[in-house]
Structures are given as structure tokens and as C-alpha cells.
Amino acid sequence: MILLVAHFPSLYPDELLYSGIARYHQMSGNTSQKQTVKELFGDRLVCATVDLPSHLRYLSERLGSVFKVNDLIMKHTLYPYYRAFIPQVKARKIYELMSEGASQGEVHALLGIPASLIKLPSYLKYCRVCYEEDFSTYYEPYWHRSHQVPGVCICPIHKEALIESTVSYTTREKKFEFTSLVSLEKDTAINLCVQPDFLNQYAMVAERSYELLQSVNLDTIYSSISKTDLHEKEYLTGLGRIRFLKLIQDFNAYYSQEFLKHLQCAVDDQCETWLHKMIRGNDLIFHPLRHILLADFMGKNLILGSTTGIEEMEMNQGKWQENNRHERTSARRSRTPFHDWKKRDMVTLTEVREVTKRIKSQKLKPQRISLATVSKNLNKTKVPFVLEKCLHKLPKTKRFLEKEIETTEQFQIRRLELAAARIAKEETKIEGWRLLKAAGLNSPLRESVVEKFKNLILY
Ligand SMILES: [Zn+2]
After folding, report:
1. Each residue of 403-443: pLDDT tens digit?
2. How many angstroms separate the alpha carbon of residue 154 from the centre of ligand 1?
3. Which of 304, 335, 366 is the last residue of a domain?
4. In this predicted model, what pLDDT tens digit does every residue of 118-139 receive, in sequence order?
5. Which of 321, 323, 411, 432 could form a disulfide with 406 if both were Cys (CB 3.0 to 4.6 A apart)?
6. What's the CA-to-centroid distance between 195 and ligand 1, angstroms?
7. String of DSSP letters for 266-332
8. Is residue 2 part of a domain?
9. Please, which residues have CB less than 5 A from ligand 1, an ion?
10. pTM tops 0.90
11. Are residues 313 and 279 in the same domain?
12. Domain housing 299
């Protein structure tokens, strides 16, 4: 068996495995996509699945196990998003199918995706700012998985409306085609229509979906609405009945109708809807998007954000019935979340320092030190929240980052210095064109960068 490890590209933070395969195809020089699939998966019938691909153990072996199956699944597919709200047995079954191989559509069917009213997006999406940042950091753009989550219309990091590409999300038509973002003709893409009035609501969905995707080390995320929650919000009558009319009215006032309709989550107070079913807490599986909407409306967290919370979360897992049984305990838990931000600031600072040091030590393929890069590389067990969102509560970390974050110019200067040091090891004279090439820079450059460039070639 030929090991492809030397040829397969490293996967970037938040990159879809689909995207890595597309980049591999481009670099391989293969004329047909089927050839690429054959190289990576052997004779298996593997389709170009965007969200929940399978046969990953085989791929991992072909790549000399440099990419562990668990990393591929947890960091480069949408599995962490979907597994958050399903019973553990089912989650394990899906994980197994993704690892060992599944017939086409099997994973999706198990999750009830084809039957769901919430349809998968039609096309792959990307963020204009991520595109540019990735280009300057990695010298190429790539498909982010957080942009491909159903209901996500803006970038969770930059809060920009995502751009819909012409690359199909489902494998119905082009079963074996992996298309890279760089090969996309930008002019053909269109902006997604996100109404400015609902920007905050779309941002909430994007951020919470991102949190779910990032929750690599958490076994269990569970947001269920207990009777205690309903009681606290005055949605229970004295006899313990649910006051649906008030609840539905409040829900519809909290979100706008258009927004809910766009997400295929509209709620009608005349008939039994998904919200009725979710509140009643029967055994049905609900789409994560609906959990997100309900949790935000009820003012609940999806992820109990703390390292000590992980154990609690494991204990907290269960269905609504169990939750009812333990309602006193869970009520106490949800009222006293771990929110010692002073302590968090210290832990985060250590982590951020570590990540910054690591980024700086990458001499061959330098990355710009940006808030997004640092955040993406943090150990999520130690920093189990979105750094960008919580920076105002972390003064020490914030001060440190303010000093460390590089502007494009500063990053270009650092690249010049690194390239010059590399060339100086081999040659006595640093030639201008060679230095620019080694640093991956093109003119025209900003004044301060030109200044540095001149200094370096003089030397
Ligand atoms: Zn972005």
C-alpha cells in the first residue's frame, strides 16, 4: 500500500475534510476526481460528502495515521454539531459509520436529516474576510466547516454575511467532485441575503453553532428545558400545566417571524409544532438548530462553559424525563455556573501565551498572529468559550494580545526577517527578488515594509 502522507496537505483550523481532499486533488495533478478518490480510499465507493463523510479509518491508514480518525471526525466534519443532542448510543453508531464506512446516505438517514424540515444548504459558503485572512496566513483560502452549518448565514468570527458559492453541498449531481475554494470563480458567487434587522439573531445562531463545533473534548452537551426552567419563566400553571399560549407568543415576539421562517423553524400557535414537542420533551430527536433557538430564548447555555463543568455535564446528560427526576440538582447546577473570570483570565493568558509562542516558532510557513488564529488554536478544554466574545472579561489576556497581534504590515516585516535569515544562512548576498519570493510578498508594499526590505538587502 502506498502511503500518501507526504503528499496530502495539512488541514487548517476549522477546515472541512472535503476541502483538504479538494486541495489534494488539485496538487495531485490527477485528471479525474475518481482517481483521487481511489488513491485516498482504495476501491471503496466514496462520495464527495461535505458534512458527514465516511470511510475515514481507511483514509487515516492511507495517510500513515498522521491524521487520526478522531481528529478528522471531531475537527474537520460536522459531527460535533449533530452529536450534541442525540443519545450516546446513536452518536457512537454514527461515529462508527463515519470511521468504518457507510453506504451512501446512511449517516444522514440515521440523523433524520432527509426527513427534517430543516433542509441542508444548497451550496457551500465562505466569508470574504476569512478568505483574505487565510490567504495572508496560509497563502490559500479554504472551506470552513463553521460556514456550512444549516442556518448559519454569517461568519461567527467576523460577523460578515457569508457568500454562497456555486459548489453544490449535496452529492446528488456531482458525486465524486471535490471542489477547492481557490478554484472557484469569485464572480459567480453571490451574497446571501441576510436582513440587517435580524443580524443579531443570525449572529447568535452562528456563534452557538461554532461553539458546538469547537466542543471537541466535551463528551456531552445537553440543553434541555426542565420544569424548573419553565417554572422560573412562569410558563407553568399552578397545577403544573405548560402555558403554551404564552410561551409561543413570547417565542414569536423574541424572534421575528421572517427569521424563523427563513430557518424553517416557524411556530404557529394554532397547531402542534416542533416547539410544542420539544417542550413536552418526548423522545424525538430535534435538529440542533432548534435546540439553539430554544436555548437562547430560555436564556440557557448550550455548553456549560468550564473545565470543572465537564464532569457535571457528563452527569447532566440524559433526556428530559431524567432531567425532571433530578430537577432540583440540575436547577442548582444551572444557577451556579463556573464563572470565575479572574481565574479564567489567568488560565487563558497561559494558553494564549503558549499558542502565540507556537505560532511564532513556525519559521517556514509563518502565520499572522491575529485574534482569530490564536483563538482557533487554543486548547478547548482549558478555554471552553469563544475568546473573541469574552475578551472584555479577560483584562490580562486582552492586554497581552494587544501587544502581540500583528497588523498586515508587521506580519510582512516578520516574514521578510525570517526569509532573510534563511537566505543569509546559505548565501552572502541577499538579492531583492529572492527575498520577496522567499517571504511570499508582492509589490506594491507599504512604506514601512519597503523600508525594512531595503535595510535587509543592504545588509
Ligand atoms: Zn470570517
Report:
1. 888 877 888 899 988 988 888 888 777 888 888 888 888 77
2. 8
3. 335
4. 989 989 999 999 999 998 888 8
5. 411
6. 18
7. ---SSS--HHHHHHHT-S----HHHHHHHHHHTT--SS--SSTHHHHHHHH-S-HHHHHHTHHHHHH
8. no
9. 127, 129-130, 155, 157-158
10. no
11. yes
12. 227-335
